[in-house]
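Researcher: I'm preparing a figure for a lab meeting and need a structural model of a single chain. I don't have an experimental structure, so a prediction will have to do for now. The sequence is pasted below. Please return the structure as C-alpha cells so I can convert it later.
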Amino acid sequence: MDVGLPVVDVSPFATGADPGAAGDEVAKLIDEICRQIGFFLVTGHGIDPAVKDRMLDAARAFFALPERDKEAIAIGRSPAHRGYVAMESEVIDDTGSRTGDLKETLDTGNECGPDHPEVRAGVPLAGPNQFPDLPGFRAAWEEYRAQAIEAAERVQRAMARALGMPDGHIIGLPGGETMYHLRLIHYPPQRDLRPAAGQLGCGAHTDYGTVTLLADDGIGGLQVMRRDGTWIEVRVPADALVVNLGDLMSIWTNDRWVSNPHRVVNPPDTDRYSMPLFVTPPFNAEISCLPTCLEPGGSPRYEPLTAGPYLLSRFDATHSYRNPLLAEHG
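Model: Understood. Here is the structure written out cell by cell.
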C-alpha cells in the first residue's frame, strides 16, 4: 500500500544560516520520526529541479550505452570502488541470498587525484572516479553532487541537534574527509526480465553508513519495512528527497534510532532511475555511542568501530568482483 512518509523542511540548516528556534523544531521532529521509522522526506534541501533533471538525463544516456562501453569502466577496474556494476553483480539482500539484484549502477565517490592527501597516505577508497565518455556527463555529475552534499549537510546538522550534539558534530568528525558516494541506478522493467523466485531490483537490506539521501524519477518501486514488519510503498514527490538511516547511525545512537530494511521492486512496464547519495564518516573516524544516547548507568550496546574498514567489509559481502563466492554464483 502507498503510505506517505513524514515531511521535514531542512532549510533552516542551510550552510551559513542560523537555524535558531526553527532549527529546534526541525530537530525535535526528526528525533520523533527516527525513533519510530528510519525514513522521512525532506524539502528545503537546496537541490535545483533542473540540476536533478540534468543528472537523471545523464544517467539515462549512460545506461543506454552498449554493454561493452559500460564495462570499459567496470568497478573491478578501480582500486577505489568506483565504476559500472552490471546486472546481477551485486547481492545486497541481507537474508543471505545469492541471487543478484536486477539493476545496474554507476558508483562514484569523492574525486581524489594522485596528490590528494588520502591518496598519498594510501587510504582505501580514496582515488579517482571512472566517468563515461559522454558529452556533459561530468558537468552534470559535479553540479548535482555539490547540491546533494549541501542537502546532506543540512540533514546532518539537523540530526546532530536532534541528538543533543553541536550542529557540526556529524559533518566535522576527524579522520579524513566524509565519504560521499553518489550512485546512479537503473532498474529495467519486469516485462524485460525473467526473475528467479524472490529476485528483486534491490533485495531487502539496511544501508551501511550514517544517512542516505535519495532522489528518483517518480516511477515508484521503493518499499520500506515498518517497525511492525509490514512493507509499505513509498513514492517520492518531485520536490522532495527520501532520507533514511544507515547502520552506523544505530551504533552512534545506541539504537535510539534504528536503520530500517528497504527494497526496490522493478516497475512492470517502464524503466526506473534513482540517485542515492550514501554518507559515511571519514575512513579513520571512530564510531561509538554518543554521550547523549547513553542512559545514566547504562552501557553501549555496540563496540566502537572504525568507519572505513566497516564499509569495506560490507562491500566485500555484496559485490561479486570482491567476493569469489558471489562471483562463482553469478
